[in-house]
Amino acid sequence: MERRKLESAALFLSLLGVLLILPPLAVVFQLERRLFGVPFEVIYLFVCWLGLIAAAFWLGRRLPREAEAEPPAEGED
Amino acid sequence: MLTPDVVIAVAIGYVGLLFLIAYVSDRQARNDKAAFLRSPFIYTLAISVYCTSWTFYGAVGSAARNGLEYLAIYLGPTLVFIGWWFVLRRLVRISHKQRITSIADLLSARFGKSSRLAVLITVIAVIGIAPYIALQLKAVTSSLQAIAGVGEFPGRTLRGIDEVGLALAVAAGMALFTILFGTRNVDAKEQHHGVVAAIAFEAVVKLAALLAIGIFVIYAGGGLEAIFSRAEAAGIDIYSTGNFDDRWVAMNVLSAAAILCLPRQFQITVVENSNENHLRTAGWAFPAYLLLMSLFTLPIALFGLTSMPAGANPDMFVLTLPLSAGQEGLALFSFIGGFSSATSMIIVESIALSIMVSNHIVMPIMLRVTQGHGVASARGVSRLLLNSRRFSIALILLLGFLYFYLTRDSDALAPIGLISFCGVAQFLPAIIAALFWREASLKAATSAVAVGFVVWAWSSFMPSFQSSSPLVAQIMAEGPWGLAWLRPEALFGVESIDPLVNVVFWSLFLNTVTLVVVSLFTSQSVLERVQAALFADLFRRPGAGAPAVIRGSATVEDLYFVAERVLGAPRAKALFDGVAGAPPPQFIDRLERELAGSIGSASAHVMLSKVVSGDAVSLEEVFEMAGETRQVIEYSQELERTSAELRSTAQKLEEANTQLRAIDTEKDEFLSQVSHEVRTPMTSIRSFSEILLEEQRLTADERQRFVKTIHQESLRLTKLLDDILGMSALDHGEHGWDNAPIEAEHSIDRAIEVCSALARQRRMQLTVGSRAPSAVISGEPDRLCQVLINLVSNAIKYNDAVEPMVEVRSRTGRGRYLIEVADNGPGIPKAERKLIFEKFARGQSGGVTAPAGAGLGLAISRQLIERMNGKLELLPGTGPGACFRITLPLL
């Protein structure tokens, strides 16, 4: 993907993350049911969390790197 | 046997280990050996200082009381780090460029280097963090008591010491520890490699401890399924119904704000950052750390609620669960984990705050009081800085202890932390405006932060003293002076919503509105505008400014003070060697360049101009200079663009000129050709007619022949003139006909009919090859016929083969109609292939010596065919003879 698309993807990921953990999306998964013994909404939140981490990992390796100069030389005591 | 004595001894031993790590890392860093210290993972682990005792102990308590709510504290920061590209990257970049040392420094730098704003931010931060420090003290105190409480023999060490005394001792110990730890030296960049290494180590310890407890609980509780089922059977609402409400939203907002605004997070994430690209790793690794930290929180809480006696403090489950199971080793590990969380938070937070206090409050006061004397030497400055930091650390822990003392009756940890979060969140609107909004002004930022602080202090900070102050309790119940709508937890009479949501909404709402409205109605000072432009154009401008000598009167001491802060004592000393009295402008210029090497030219310029004259005039000058520079840059860019345009125009003109000259030559050649062509028949007509006029003795036969020649020549002349006229009409776009659908095969028939006579005359074969049955094209039948006659007669005329033959064939395919005229004549040499379609070109190499045409035929034919949207070309054949092809689009 080119730079602009990657940046858009990063922005989208952040906004999607916000929407996923807030009502009304979070409420959708309050099913009063359990999966592997754990309430569904807990599983939902952790899966979202994992997804966000994976996507951020993917993006972090691809977002453009500028020829960023190291911060200025070390200061002395 | 786990007694308080053992625990305290272990804690002290652990602190010693931390010292060792910090010391070794500092040495390594100084010798540039410790590359791993600058790795993105150490950076990420250090950021995990976000997880304090609140996380270690308090999250379980929070989960036991409010279910899933504890997760909001970690999801907010997760989202901020997932979106690191947009906010954190900017923060880090601008802070590196401007050498920002704290959050107060950042806001002050953006809003015109205002010292008043810096003081305000520092004061708010110190007050806002006090509850957070108190939380750590409370957690460590409670953990010590928890261990003392379950011992078979109450420890002698803690006998006779109550909670308050214990907390005071912990605070004093922590203060001493932090002073020894964080203020051993002053780094110009305010980076503490040793501290960061120790913090990263602590991050590993607390994560390992919490995971160990989690696994123990899963094991002891018989698996996740069993733990949740037992909790459900015990009447606990495991489905956390109604958890995703306005309080959930408010807590997410608060935690997202806190990860940016907490002084310690700013210190680690921004100031201690050694490479912007580390954010790439932290962007996913920090959220992953948070996930691991909160993975077992809910099972631990539920297991604690079902297995511990009623009334047990859920904040201490992490410690009391292994203790009650007799797992003393695990309990000790857990204590160390909690101790790690508390110490790392206190160390970094108080270092960050002490930098703010000493840089923005103590130093300015000292400079004012001593009039700059006593700080002229590097040692003086260093000592003053270090002492003011030590004092600040002691003050910060004292405030934390005082808060703890005054609010000691409250039991839960998490609500205390939320008070601090909400306090520092008041910086968020100003920070966002600093990064993204150029028009935000100093007055607006100052008043916005102040308004937010007042609302927070009134409705979040003050209520925590409810239990210790009757006056506060009365205000809480009835409002000040009986004004019910000002009751802290129901501001403006809104009682139906949660008090936390209440304060978060009103404080941030009024804060933001003030920021925007005041910005719209106030103007920025010159320095503010300069700084706003620097912040706003962060990624646009390469950061170069034009060198300009600052005039003014500054003492060497003033300049040295600046230089030493930026460059460090040895470099500053070398630079100032031999300079005394009023420094010459050249020296100031040189100093500026030196400073620019460290902090960027713009800030060096602004900084020096501030020091050198210290009044608004020089700032105006700076601004003007900056403006001039920009104008010059714009002007030169304009010039460059104009000259590029000129260059391309000139090139176009030259091309046009060449073309015109070529056309001119062509025209000359054309005229001479035409004259020549006209002259030949004219000469013969003239001479024959003269003979006829003058010679009377001609026989009738001869006369007849001469008249015939004259007739033929005049016919040729007419044909030539017709050709030239037709050519010129085509050249000027006068077509004289409109294309219409025609049957092209009829034109071929006609052309063959016309040419067969000529062919017979020359005794050659005109064969008709395969023909398309029918082809309807858009064109003009007579012109098409003319072109074909031209091609066929050429083929006949120039053919000198022994058995001369010409073949005409046609076919259709792929929407096109092809007519080919092929002969077995001499063909057309390669060199002439391009030329034959030019005017007056004639086959030269043919054996026929007297060409009968003017050489306009092919040129005209090609134009005619092009007019019918087709093309006439010579096929690049290899064998003997030539083959012309007409391609026309089928209708």
Automatic annotation (TrEMBL), chain A:
Keywords tagged on the record: Membrane, Transmembrane, Transmembrane helix
Transmembrane segments: 42-60
Listed name of the protein: DUF3311 domain-containing protein
Annotated organism of origin: Devosia insulae DS-56
Organism classification: Bacteria, Pseudomonadati, Pseudomonadota, Alphaproteobacteria, Hyphomicrobiales
UniProtKB/TrEMBL annotation, chain B:
Places the protein is found: Membrane
GO cellular component, one term: membrane
One protein family per Pfam: HATPase_c
Protein's recorded name: histidine kinase
Domain Histidine kinase: 673-891
Topological type in the membrane: Multi-pass membrane protein
InterPro entries xref list: HATPase_C_sf (IPR036890), HATPase_dom (IPR003594), His_kinase_dom (IPR005467), HisK_dim/P_dom (IPR003661), HisK_dim/P_sf (IPR036097), Na/Glc_symporter_sf (IPR038377), Na/solute_symporter (IPR001734), Sensor_HK_Regulatory (IPR050736)
SMART domains referenced in this protein's UniProt entry, alphabetically: HATPase_c, HisKA
Residue ranges that the Swiss-Prot or TrEMBL entry lists as coiled coil: 632-673
Organism: Devosia insulae DS-56
Location, primary (coarse class): membrane
Transmembrane segments: 6-24, 36-59, 71-88, 117-135, 164-183, 195-220, 284-305, 388-406, 412-437, 444-461
GO terms of molecular function: phosphorelay sensor kinase activity; transmembrane transporter activity
Presence of the UniProt keyword Amino-acid biosynthesis in the record: no
Catalytic activity: ATP + protein L-histidine = ADP + protein N-phospho-L-histidine
PANTHER family, per the entry: HISTIDINE KINASE 1 (PTHR43711:SF1), TWO-COMPONENT HISTIDINE KINASE (PTHR43711)
EC number from the UniProt entry: 2.7.13.3
Keywords for the protein's UniProt record, in alphabetical order: Coiled coil, Kinase, Membrane, Phosphoprotein, Transferase, Transmembrane, Transmembrane helix, Two-component regulatory system
